[in-house]
Amino acid sequence: MAAVDEAVLARVRAGMRGLSPPGHHTKVYKEECMYSFDTPFSAGGLYVNLKTFQGVGSDFLDLDHEKGGAPTTLYLHEAWTKVPAEEEAPIDSGKAPAKLAIGVEGGFNTEGPKMTVVKDHSLVVMPGRLRVALPCVDLPELVNNVVNAVMAHESVTAQETVAAWEEERRVSKYAAALEQLDTGRRISPNPKDWRCDETGATENLWLNLSTGHIGSGRQNWDGSGGNGAALRHFEATGGRYPLVVKLGTITPSGADVYSYAPDEDDMMEKTEKTMAELQVDLNMRFEFDAITEAGAHLVPLSGPGHVGLVNLGNSCYMNSCLQVLFALPELARRYVGPAGAIFRSAPADPATDLLTQMAKVGAALVEGRTGAPPPPPAPMDADGAATADAPASAAAAAAGGNAAAAGGGRGGGAATQTQSVRPLAFKTLVGRGHHEFSSARQQDAAEYWGHLLELVGRAEHAGKARLGLGADDPLLQALFSFATEDRTQCLETGAVSYRRATTTNLALHVPLEAAVNAADVERYRERQAKRQKLRDSSATAYIGAAPLEGAEGSGGGAAGGGGSSVVTASEGGKDEPPVLPVVPFDAVLSKWAAPEVLDDYRSAAAGGRRVQATRRARFATFPPCLTVVAASEVPPLSLGYMYVYAREDTDAAKAAAGGGA
C-alpha cells in the first residue's frame, strides 16, 4: 500500500482533537443513518462520525460536519455489499441464533439465502471528503485505535433489538430489606479468581447477596450446569438469605438475580444460561407468521407511497399507525416537505428527537427514501439482454422494470429490501419509558395510536418554530380530535341533561345482525357444524337428501339454496375458507347514534330515584379525519378494526353530526 501523503496526514491530525475510543456502554450508530434509512449497504455507504459515533448517509454528510462546528471532522466510511456465499465454503444456514435480534449478525435470520458480506472501510476527512483506505499503518495510532474500536463495537441497532426482547423482571420482595452480613470478604474483579467455596468449581457461579458465599448452580437433568452448592448454602443458613446473583452478568444496566425463596419459585428459572440466552431459545421455538391475502395474486410495488415497514417482532400495531398517518397529505406537508429544516435544527442526538424521527419515517414512506442497496449487475449476453440465470431483481433492473415486482415471493430478498424500511429507532423512542410499548410483546393499535398522538402533540407544541408553524396553527391531534355529546332524558320528569367528551377515536360495536351476507354466514356455520360431526365420527361425508344439482361431493362446501347437499370433512386436508359477516359502515355508525333505553338511571330531577331514561349520542364537533375503532365478536374470534375516514366519506356520519336537542 502506498504511503499516505504528509499533507493528508496533516489534515487527519487536525481532526484528532477530542478523539477517544467508544466505551462499553457508548451508543455507536454504525448501521443506519440518523436522518434516513441509509445503511452501509446503500449506494453511498454510511459515514460514522469518530467523535459522536453517529452514522449519516452520503446526502447528510455535509450537514453532520456543519452541525459539529469543528473545522475538520473524521469519519469511518462503511461500504458493504452482499454476494452469494462461496460453494466451497458452506455456510451453516441452520445455525442457532445467539442474539435476541432479527436480521442482524448472530440474530434470527429473515433474509432467505445465505450471503457473504464484503466490507470496505476507509477514513474520510471533512470538508472535502478526503479518503484514506483502511487499514493504514501510516495513520496516527489514536485514529487507528478509534476506528478499530468503532468497527468492533456492538451497534445501537443490535442493543435496542435485544433490549426490546428482554424478559419482564419481577421485583423480589426480599430485595427492599436485603440484609448484608459484614463477613470481611471482598470479591475479586478478576473472573479467573472465582471459585465455588464448597467444591472449587469455576463455572455457573452464583454470589449470595447477603453472605458473600460463592456457590455453584443447580445440576441439570443431563448432569451439566453445576452441583447445587449455592442452594445447599441457602438451606444451611436456615433459608434466611435467598437472593443470589450470577457472577459474570453484573453490568451498570443490570444483572441476573435469582431468589431461592419457596414463595418466589415462579419468578424465573435458574440455569447455567443467561436470561437473554433463555429468550433466544424461546423465540427459536416460536413461529412468526406472515399475514397475506389468501388466494390473491399480489404484485409487489415499490417507490413513493409504496414503502413497507418491516415487522420488528410484534410491531404490526406501530406499522399500521404510521402507514395511516403518512397516508394523509397533512402529515406529508408538515414533516416531509420541511424535513431539511427539521434535521438542521435537531439536537445533538437526533435519535432522541421525535420530530426528526417523524420526518425520517415520513420521507421514507411518502418519497420512497429507503436507502436500498443498488441492484446487483445482471449478466448480459452478446446482444445486451439479461441472461436467464440472472437474479430476478437484477433482470428487472436491467430491463428498466420494477425490481420489487420481479422479486416477488414471501419473506426477504431484494424486493423486500428495496420497498421496506426498519423503523427501529422510531419504535425505541416512542416506547421509551412505557412499560408495554418498549417491549416486543403484542400491543393494541388503538392504545398505541392515542399514545403516539399525545407524544407527537407535545413535541409539536415545543417545536412549532422548527416545523414552520405559527402560534395559532393546529397540532397533529387537531386532525383527529372531536367532541361527542350524550343527551339523556328522564322519562318520568322529561328533564334533559347533556355531557360532552373530547377524544381522538370513535369506539364502535359492529352489529352483526346488520350483515348483508347473513344468510351466507349462517349456511357456512351449518356446514362447519356438519364437518365437526364428520370429524367426531371419523366419517368422510355428510349425506342429507339427494345433492343439489351442481353440488360437488368432494368440494369441501355445499351449493347454495334450500336443499340438502353433500359436505365433506375437508378438501385436500384444508378447511373451507371462512365466510365472515360483511356489515356496512353506515349500519355501524347508525347503531352508535340510535337511542338507547336505560332502565336503571339515577335521575336528579326525580330526587335521585332510579327511573327509566333514554340516551342518544351525537357528534358535537367533527374532525378533518375520523378515526374509528370497531370491535365485534365473531366466534371463536374477537375481531378489532381501525379505520380513518375523511369528513365526507359517509352519509351516516353527516347525519350523526347533525340533529338538535
From TrEMBL:
UBP-type domain segment(s): 170-282
Protein name: ubiquitinyl hydrolase 1
Gene Ontology MF terms: cysteine-type deubiquitinase activity; zinc ion binding
Disordered as annotated region, ranges: 367-389, 552-575
Taxonomic superkingdom: Eukaryota
Ranges annotated as biased composition (Low complexity): 380-389
Keyword annotations from UniProtKB, A to Z: Hydrolase, Metal-binding, Protease, Repeat, Thiol protease, Ubl conjugation pathway, Zinc, Zinc-finger
Annotated catalysed reactions: Thiol-dependent hydrolysis of ester, thioester, amide, peptide and isopeptide bonds formed by the C-terminal Gly of ubiquitin (a 76-residue protein attached to proteins as an intracellular targeting signal)
Biased composition (Gly residues): 552-564
EC number: 3.4.19.12
One biological process term in Gene Ontology: proteolysis
Species for this entry: Raphidocelis subcapitata
Pfam families hit by this protein: UCH (PF00443), zf-UBP (PF02148), zf-UBP_var (PF17807)
GO cellular component annotations of the record: cytosol; nucleus
InterPro entries hit by this protein: Papain-like_cys_pep_sf (IPR038765), Peptidase_C19 (IPR050164), Peptidase_C19_UCH (IPR001394), UBP13_Znf-UBP_var (IPR041432), USP (IPR028889), USP_CS (IPR018200), Znf_RING/FYVE/PHD (IPR013083), Znf_UBP (IPR001607)
Family: Belongs to the peptidase C19 family.
USP domain: residues covered: 307-661
